[in-house]
Give the backbone structure.
Amino acid sequence: MDETVFALSLLLLTYTYLGYPALAWARAALQPRPPRAWGIEPDVTVVLAVHDEAERITRRLENLLALEYPRDRLDIVVGSDGSTDGTADLARAFESHGVSVVAFGSRRGKPAVLNDLVPKARGAIVVILSDGWDRGDPDQLTAELIHLRRSAHRLVWLNPLIGSEGYQPLTRGMAAALPYCDDFLAAHNVQALDDLGRLLAGLDRRPTRV
């Protein structure tokens, strides 16, 4: 009996850390990408799915608005996932700068937030800013990213935890997301967002994965 329980536990752990990511990568590889169809300055939509980030939301929005990218081609959409610390109110202070804020009354998880925010993404390039930690169903997140992959020409994921020492994208949420992302970048400081600016500026010279 003990050997059976041990074997089942080992099988579950193996699937969680190896099998699930492998299946996600295989599924993503079969999804077609739309042809590249932009000039030098494509429209970009940055989507932030946040929960109780009052200490960080102002700085992040200031940094995003400081990107050296044409403002008429950059949309920023903030989805506050049931925040109770004033995150949405702080984000609304930037609405005069073109930031859109959607405040959800209860916490539903990032996949549900993305489900509501994705239709607002008009850019050929979609940038998601999230730490990848979520208690929601990773399969729902996968479904939303499949939709994005079909409609957007490039999908970029910014993770503020990349700047943390020893960070590895091992959560199930990140395992589900990474196969559908063209770029996985840091977002913990101004320099990291400068890297995003350089990426956006150089996309007209980079081949898009098909």
